[in-house]
Amino acid sequence: MRLRNNPKAYEIMNENSDFVVIEPENLKNNWKDIFDNDRPIYIEIGMGKGDFIFQNACNYPDINFIGIEKYPSVLAAAINKIKQKEKKVTNLRLMHYDAIELEKVFSENEVDKIFLNFSDPWPKSRHAKRRLTSNKFLDVYRKILVDDGVIEFKTDNRSLFEYSLISLNQYPMDLEYVSLDLHNSPENESNIMTEYERKFCTKGPIYKLVARYRKNG
């Protein structure tokens, strides 16, 4: 998700350092310090305007959530939106970072779950390595996830979904859930939608998978 460039994006981040992590590399293997607890850590890569990660933080106060966004202007929009919420949460942090470098931010076995919601499909074959479910990124996820860590993935792009199933199958992972039409399945009752999802779910099916790394796999 991209927005028009916001020249004040970094200024907005710095002004909200109470819930925006400015230098996340300093917290590698020490995220418990910023949350002041050692509860499970769930991260969303490509958080957009933050609707999904904020609602999760509200619904699950015993889990620590980190929203990660590559584009500064998008993160700035999320910060402003979350600040306007009446409900305040203490188990949520945001940061500007590129997912391919997350090993600089998280140690091995430091993350319990990764959410990938409506990632850019990068439809051209020559751009496949940029997809967030390519081997290039899955190698990073495997290192930072706990041994039985989970990846949850949603998309409205059938080709990306099929590509992701193939990519995940190359790793020691068990597919715990696969849906070709999430919004017409019983599991949709507990589904938390992203802003993009609310806008486009009426135009076609939403695909979802949940995959878990096998312990010592």
TrEMBL record:
Any Gene Ontology CC annotation: tRNA methyltransferase complex
UniProt KW Repressor keyword: no
Enzyme Commission number(s) of this protein: 2.1.1.33
Entry binding sites for S-adenosyl-L-methionine: E44, E69, D98, D120
Gene3D superfamilies: Vaccinia Virus protein VP39
Residues given in the record as substrate binding sites: K124, D156, T194, E195, Y196, E197
Catalytic activity line of the entry: guanosine(46) in tRNA + S-adenosyl-L-methionine = N(7)-methylguanosine(46) in tRNA + S-adenosyl-L-homocysteine
Keywords: Methyltransferase, S-adenosyl-L-methionine, Transferase, tRNA processing
UniProt function note: Catalyzes the formation of N(7)-methylguanine at position 46 (m7G46) in tRNA.
Family statement: Belongs to the class I-like SAM-binding methyltransferase superfamily. TrmB family.
Family matches, as PANTHER family: 3-DEOXY-D-MANNO-OCTULOSONIC-ACID TRANSFERASE/TRNA GUANINE-N 7 - -METHYLTRANSFERASE, PENTACOTRIPEPTIDE-REPEAT REGION OF PRORP DOMAIN-CONTAINING PROTEIN
Protein name: tRNA (guanine-N(7)-)-methyltransferase
Organism placement in taxonomy: Bacteria, Bacillati, Bacillota, Erysipelotrichia, Erysipelotrichales
The encoding gene: trmB
